[in-house]
Hints:
CATH 2.40.50.140; 2 domains; 5-stranded mixed sheet; 13 helices; 37% helix; 24% strand
Amino acid sequence: MRPNGPSARERLQTIAHRVMIERGLEPDFSPAAVAQVARLAGPASADGKEVRDLRSLLWCSIDNDDSRDLDQLTVGAALAGDGIRIQVAIADVDALVAAGTPVDQHAQANTTSVYTAARIFPMLPERLSTDLTSLNGGEDRLAVVVSMDLDGDGHVTGSEVFRALVHNQAKLAYDSVAAWLEGQAEIPAAAGAVPGLAENLRLQDKAAQCLRARRFEQGALGLETIEARPVFEDGHLLDLQAQEKNRAKELIEDFMIAANGVTAAFLDRKGFASLRRVVRIPKRWSRIVEIARALGSELPAEPDSRALEGFLDERRKADPEGFPELSLSVVKLLGSGEYAVDLPGQDPPGHFGLAVRDYAHSTAPNRRFPDLITQRLLKAALGGAPSPYPLPQLEALALRCTQKEDDANKVERQVRKSAGALLLSDRIGQTFDGIVTGASDKGTWVRIFRPVAEGRLERGAKGVDVGDRVRVRLLSTDVERGFIDFARAI
């Protein structure tokens, strides 16, 4: 880096902006979208339609430390016996972003926020996503609420969807909440300052554990992949650190999966076609079988999520340190998800990894366009109006959301690789331990463990497949193109 040149963060931001354009995504908002947001006087208020006032409940948000686009709040309540009511409040983005407006057009163009290593490209202008439509701490906001009654075994015994006015009593972060739940730290100050919130969080955790146990019984896959998070200091890239799951992340994940299931079933009952999130039967199941056999386990010849989860649970206990590597291999072999239209009364294709049939993305409308579509469908159904999306339009949107999500993933991956190339640029010739993450006619890719970075295996790729452990030598890096090239180290 030249003394007066751009910092690592600035360089990666420039790369991210360029790659967004190359992938057909819009990195900047149009003047019309900016003007639309500038005209907004403040957050949406109740519009006279049936909106319940639930501001007195112990709502809280749990997200990343630096998250500002808060899409959901949660709260629990004890029911008779061992039942628990969990309510998920989802930001009412549609109240300020009408279909067909310039902001909506930008959201439909990208269909998702893009989270690169150096810069976030939000789906909605930040005055919306981090302020007016964000469920910020200490603020009143309109929301769509999914309410679920659970029994002690994690069955949803009753559910309801409605509109409400809510108030975030405490903005909390995953790591500090998880440390407290696991008995490793004191309760976060923001939670401790709200009378009754500690007990409510314990109740929520209990409900999440029940939901999780039931999903695993049904064959949901308990995967623990590691994602790389860049660490900057004064603009300089210091590391790509591994980010792992924890108990608070699992709590929110369990509630969102359950809420997305209730949402899908609600729209089906109302006779609405809807967007479903689908992960189909894995095409490379045979390779998963080979990996299991190499570890001393047998899986059936045909895809079976319960059998796969049994194997994963066995390996999690036998080799907890190596389990994230196995998880990564399985994730790669399962393949990516997609959006599909489900017609009411039909049998949906389902989500193989979650072992659920009814699953619609609905809980992140500040960040994902499919969730905003689903929110508009829900509000129409609640108001007795027809679907705002004719079937041909919904089918076209499902395809577009799948395609643009893939483009966004490629942008994020390329900028991660540029960050990795930058971090590794002075380590040419060094060797690293890694795992094969991709193997096809297009090439073979390896993820090294320290730092967490992925590159192409240019030499020595013959005979290796996804899931194989390898030792590689760094041949070259190209920061601008995000290239990291390895050779097999014998």
